[in-house]
Amino acid sequence: MPSDRLDATFTALADPTRRAILARLAEGEATVMELAEPFAMSLPAISKHLKVLERAGLISRGRDAQRRPCRLETAPLKEAGEWAEHFVRLWEERLDRLDDYLQELQGAEKKQGPRK
Amino acid sequence: MPSDRLDATFTALADPTRRAILARLAEGEATVMELAEPFAMSLPAISKHLKVLERAGLISRGRDAQRRPCRLETAPLKEAGEWAEHFVRLWEERLDRLDDYLQELQGAEKKQGPRK
DNA sequence: CGCCTATTTAACCTCTGAGTTAATTAACCA
DNA sequence: TGGTTAATTAACTCAGAGGTTAAATAGGCG
Known about the structure:
2 copies of one chain form a homodimer. Chain A is mainly α and 116 residues long. Chain A is 66% helix and 5% strand. In chain A, a hairpin with an 8-residue loop joins strand 1 (59-61) and strand 2. Chains A, B: Pfam families: HTH_20.
């Protein structure tokens, strides 16, 4: 997972409007009009948000006459989620190793008596 | 997981320098100097990045004389990762239901013969 | 064709984010 | 006490994100 891909994904996910759009799309395809409806925001603004989502690969767009229906694409979400959870796992493994190490130290100390 | 929390987390993760700092911290605590070392960037710049990470709850800071060692905090990473993967799951369940529905349609069609 | 609908592009504004250098605070050390 | 190291704050620049309105494009429809 290259860094600029993560950049694009996390940047796209950082905006609440865009997350709301994704939430809406999780219920199925929608046109720009439909997506814009819940927001107090102009159509061009929504159009820009969609472009950000598209560049991040989080949505793809079809064509239906003059409509450009959007659909959710989950691949980048998976990558981002896995990145985050991989990180958590790394950290927890490290804590475990640290814990083992401390216990080992304590064991050694018992054998040779308290240091101080 | 409130929206502004996700905002802060994803915003913090959107920057490659900050992700690199987190990666470094996954190997253990580090001071600001140590964190700054790999980057061609001034200390105040790093200091600002750390503030962003701290506000997002992704790091916490201790005190050791004049040093302010940073340590990784995984809670927001977990939340963000779970958010992303929950989303993926929702979508895939939806696809499954859609699939069931299509198969049901096809079954009905067989019983009453092709429509056209 | 001429009009209506859906969407994008253009041009612009404003605010924020990432970076800078210079100055300040905080804590140790001789 | 004065000097040095670690880190932050202040004041500034610059670019880009997110928003606007108005104009342009694309594709039915009478």
